[in-house]
Amino acid sequence: MDYLQYFDIFDEIDREEPPRKRKFYKKRFDPFTLEEKDFRMKYRFSKVYMRKIVKLVQRDIEPQASGGGLSVELQVCTALRTWARQEVQDDAADIHGLSQQSITNICRRVALALASKAAQFIRMPSTLEEQEQVVSGFRNICGFKQVIGAIDCTHIKIKKVGGDSAQYYINRKGFSSLNVQVVCDAQLKIRDIVAHWRGSTHDARIFRESQIRQRFENGEFHGRLLGDSGYGLTNYLFTPVQNPRTAKEKSYNKSHILTRNTIERCFGVWKQRFRCLLLGFSVSLENVKLYIVALAILHNIAIEMNEGIDFLEPVISEDNGDQQVLREGLDSRSGQETRRLFIETQF
Q1: Which one, 65, 197, 239, 295, has least CB within 10 Å?
Q2: Pick from 159, 173, 189, 157: nearest CA to 265
Q3: Helix, strand, or coil here: 197?
Q4: What count of Cα atoms within 13 Å lies in the side-chain half-sphere of residue 268?
């Protein structure tokens, strides 16, 4: 009965685990092997800037220990390339050997790490010395005194929102958007940002319900904002004179326009750096709000590091149309008197 021994062998074979399928990871391109010129053309930033961002978020997005883990460098380069060049995500995935879902996860991971540092990079000047430095920057433009910030809103296009609230995201130009409020300084740095209001919301309401307005009401700043005629005139927010008559009023308006133009330039440079802000987002609404704050931080760091934009495509500043509204009840009496005295003594 020697043949019975083969049944024992068959039992052992049945008990053996099937061989594991070997994992094959896509070959990933190392961006830092590129020449500096090629790196800037592909990623729109210098290697020095990119390494600065890597260092900033390194502790928040440490790579996984497994063999498929992504380096922090690759994650940062992937996210910035996706935002800056507004590439279709699977195109960027092909470049770096990553799946489309991986690109989405990476962008959110990097954005979360950046947004957690918002208070460090997006802030109004607090000390008297800092405030005077900002005021001086605006004064150097054309002599307009006591300005600590220029304010306006810009629409960031989003994909169509479903549900009962969909109509409230459609702006006056007919597309779905977030209406994002920004305060900038003379160096085009973003000093304050509100990135959650629906596209149909008026600029004046966004400011009226913002924390920055309350801080001005509380007297935190020794200076004022400049806004277009869509805002209400107050002691701390000056708007243009409607139908100027005197030479002084005309001179005030001219100076106001030139000084307030910094916010239009800020929007232009911001969107020039990150084309996704210009062309719009196709990701979830939650991620759009997160990305906007992260991109404001990246913009400010780029200004601090003197990252040039000469090689980028120019962006035509959008016309916000000043959102003309009825002035009755919008301008405060104290604001009118304060502006009148300012014009009389400064112009």
Answers
A1: 65
A2: 189
A3: strand
A4: 16
DSSP H helices, the chain, are 5-15, 36-43, 47-57, 72-85, 89-96, 100-115, 118-121, 128-142, 203-208, 211-217, 247-273, 275-279, 285-304, 333-346
- Coil, strand, or helix at residue 2? helix
Q: Is 64 exposed, middle or buried (0-12, 13-18, 19+ CB in 10 A)?
A: exposed
Give Cα separations from 285 to 124, 208, 308, 310, 311 (angstroms): 27, 23, 31, 32, 31
10-residue mean pLDDT series, the chain (347 residues): 43 52 57 86 88 94 62 90 71 61 88 96 95 97 96 96 88 95 97 96 96 96 95 96 94 97 96 93 93 97 87 55 52 92 94
Q: Which long-range contacts (CB under 8 A, 24 or more apart) does 41-46 make?
A: 41/311, 42/81, 42/85, 43/77, 43/80, 43/81, 43/84, 44/80, 44/81, 44/84, 44/85, 44/273, 44/312, 45/80, 45/84, 45/302, 45/307, 46/307
State the pTM of this model. 0.86
pLDDT digits (tens, 9 = 90+) for 281-314: 989 999 999 999 999 999 999 999 998 776 555 5
- DSSP bridge pairs for 155: 179
Q: Which of 134, 156, 295 is nearest to 223 (CA)?
A: 134
